[in-house]
Amino acid sequence: MKTKHLFIVNSVVLLMHGLGFLLMPEATMSYYGVTLGAGGMLVARWLGGVQLGNALLTWLTRNASDSIARQAIITALFFAWTVAFVAGLVAQLAGTMNGLGWSSVVISLALAVGFGLTWAQSSRLLRTA
Protein backbone atom coordinates (compact mmCIF):
# COMPACT_ATOMS: atom_id res chain seq x y z
CA MET A 1 0.00 0.00 0.00
CA LYS A 2 1.29 3.46 -0.83
CA THR A 3 2.05 5.75 2.08
CA LYS A 4 -0.51 8.22 0.74
CA HIS A 5 -3.27 5.61 0.97
CA LEU A 6 -2.18 4.55 4.45
CA PHE A 7 -2.28 8.19 5.58
CA ILE A 8 -5.78 8.56 4.14
CA VAL A 9 -7.03 5.39 5.89
CA ASN A 10 -5.47 6.61 9.13
CA SER A 11 -7.17 10.00 8.73
CA VAL A 12 -10.60 8.48 8.14
CA VAL A 13 -10.35 6.04 11.06
CA LEU A 14 -9.14 8.74 13.44
CA LEU A 15 -11.70 11.27 12.22
CA MET A 16 -14.58 8.88 12.92
CA HIS A 17 -13.31 7.78 16.32
CA GLY A 18 -12.09 11.24 17.27
CA LEU A 19 -15.44 12.88 16.62
CA GLY A 20 -17.22 10.17 18.59
CA PHE A 21 -14.91 10.49 21.59
CA LEU A 22 -14.95 14.29 21.53
CA LEU A 23 -18.66 14.93 20.95
CA MET A 24 -20.38 11.93 22.52
CA PRO A 25 -17.89 9.84 24.52
CA GLU A 26 -20.45 8.07 26.68
CA ALA A 27 -22.52 6.94 23.69
CA THR A 28 -19.41 5.92 21.74
CA MET A 29 -18.05 3.79 24.57
CA SER A 30 -21.47 2.26 25.28
CA TYR A 31 -21.23 0.49 21.90
CA TYR A 32 -18.23 -1.33 23.36
CA GLY A 33 -20.08 -2.17 26.57
CA VAL A 34 -18.06 0.35 28.59
CA THR A 35 -19.54 2.96 30.91
CA LEU A 36 -17.69 6.18 31.71
CA GLY A 37 -17.62 8.26 34.83
CA ALA A 38 -16.61 11.93 34.90
CA GLY A 39 -12.91 11.08 34.64
CA GLY A 40 -13.52 8.68 31.78
CA MET A 41 -15.49 11.36 29.91
CA LEU A 42 -12.59 13.79 30.33
CA VAL A 43 -10.01 11.28 29.09
CA ALA A 44 -12.24 10.22 26.18
CA ARG A 45 -12.68 13.83 25.07
CA TRP A 46 -8.96 14.46 25.41
CA LEU A 47 -8.28 11.33 23.34
CA GLY A 48 -10.79 12.53 20.75
CA GLY A 49 -8.89 15.80 20.38
CA VAL A 50 -5.59 13.95 19.99
CA GLN A 51 -7.11 11.62 17.41
CA LEU A 52 -8.53 14.54 15.42
CA GLY A 53 -5.11 16.21 15.48
CA ASN A 54 -3.45 13.05 14.18
CA ALA A 55 -6.16 12.69 11.52
CA LEU A 56 -5.40 16.23 10.38
CA LEU A 57 -1.65 15.56 10.44
CA THR A 58 -1.86 12.55 8.16
CA TRP A 59 -4.43 14.22 5.89
CA LEU A 60 -2.27 17.30 5.40
CA THR A 61 0.89 15.24 4.79
CA ARG A 62 -0.64 12.53 2.58
CA ASN A 63 1.06 13.99 -0.52
CA ALA A 64 4.41 14.75 1.12
CA SER A 65 7.51 13.33 -0.52
CA ASP A 66 9.97 11.07 1.27
CA SER A 67 11.70 13.10 3.95
CA ILE A 68 12.99 12.87 7.48
CA ALA A 69 9.82 14.62 8.69
CA ARG A 70 7.52 12.12 6.96
CA GLN A 71 9.65 9.28 8.31
CA ALA A 72 9.20 10.71 11.82
CA ILE A 73 5.41 10.78 11.36
CA ILE A 74 5.42 7.17 10.15
CA THR A 75 7.60 6.10 13.09
CA ALA A 76 5.36 7.87 15.62
CA LEU A 77 2.20 6.35 14.16
CA PHE A 78 3.75 2.87 14.08
CA PHE A 79 4.52 3.26 17.79
CA ALA A 80 1.07 4.71 18.59
CA TRP A 81 -0.87 1.99 16.77
CA THR A 82 1.31 -0.75 18.26
CA VAL A 83 0.61 0.55 21.77
CA ALA A 84 -3.10 0.87 20.91
CA PHE A 85 -3.12 -2.73 19.70
CA VAL A 86 -1.48 -4.06 22.87
CA ALA A 87 -3.73 -1.99 25.15
CA GLY A 88 -6.85 -3.03 23.25
CA LEU A 89 -5.85 -6.69 23.24
CA VAL A 90 -5.19 -6.66 26.99
CA ALA A 91 -8.54 -4.93 27.64
CA GLN A 92 -10.38 -7.34 25.35
CA LEU A 93 -8.83 -10.42 26.95
CA ALA A 94 -9.67 -9.03 30.40
CA GLY A 95 -13.33 -8.71 29.39
CA THR A 96 -13.36 -4.92 29.63
CA MET A 97 -15.18 -4.56 26.30
CA ASN A 98 -17.87 -6.57 24.58
CA GLY A 99 -17.35 -8.36 21.25
CA LEU A 100 -17.24 -5.09 19.33
CA GLY A 101 -13.95 -4.38 21.09
CA TRP A 102 -12.30 -6.90 18.77
CA SER A 103 -12.90 -4.49 15.89
CA SER A 104 -10.67 -1.91 17.58
CA VAL A 105 -8.02 -4.55 18.21
CA VAL A 106 -8.06 -5.61 14.55
CA ILE A 107 -8.02 -2.01 13.25
CA SER A 108 -5.11 -1.16 15.54
CA LEU A 109 -3.20 -4.23 14.44
CA ALA A 110 -3.82 -3.53 10.76
CA LEU A 111 -2.61 0.06 11.08
CA ALA A 112 0.39 -0.97 13.21
CA VAL A 113 1.41 -3.51 10.55
CA GLY A 114 0.80 -0.99 7.77
CA PHE A 115 2.90 1.71 9.42
CA GLY A 116 5.53 -0.87 10.43
CA LEU A 117 5.95 -2.07 6.85
CA THR A 118 5.95 1.52 5.57
CA TRP A 119 8.51 2.47 8.22
CA ALA A 120 10.81 -0.39 7.16
CA GLN A 121 10.49 0.52 3.49
CA SER A 122 10.94 4.28 3.94
CA SER A 123 13.89 3.79 6.32
CA ARG A 124 15.64 1.79 3.64
CA LEU A 125 14.91 4.48 1.02
CA LEU A 126 16.23 7.31 3.20
CA ARG A 127 19.46 5.42 3.99
CA THR A 128 20.24 4.91 0.31
CA ALA A 129 19.52 8.56 -0.59
Describe this structure in words.
- By secondary structure, the protein is mainly alpha-helical.
- It has one domain (3-128).
- It is 81% helix and 0% strand.
- Helix 1 (3-23) runs antiparallel to helix 3 and helix 4 (68-93) runs antiparallel to helix 5 (101-128).
- The longest helix is centred in the C-terminal third of the chain and has 28 residues, at 101-128.
- The chain is globular, with a radius of gyration of 16 Å.
Please name the defining characteristics of this protein.
single chain; 129 residues; mainly alpha; globular
What's this, in brief?
With 129 residues, the chain is mainly α. It has helices spanning 3-23, 25-30, 38-60, 68-93, 101-128. The chain has one domain.
- Whole-number total of structural domains: 1
What would the principal axes of the Cα set say about the shape? globular
Number of strands: 0
Please summarize the sheet with the most strands. none
Q: How much strand?
A: under 5%
N-C termini distance: 21 Å
Main structural class:
mainly alpha
Oligomer: single chain
Helix content: over 70%
Q: Roughly how many Å is the radius of gyration? A: 16 Å
List the topology elements.
Elements: H1 3-23, H2 25-30, H3 38-60, H4 68-93, H5 101-128
Helix pairs in contact: 1-3, 4-5
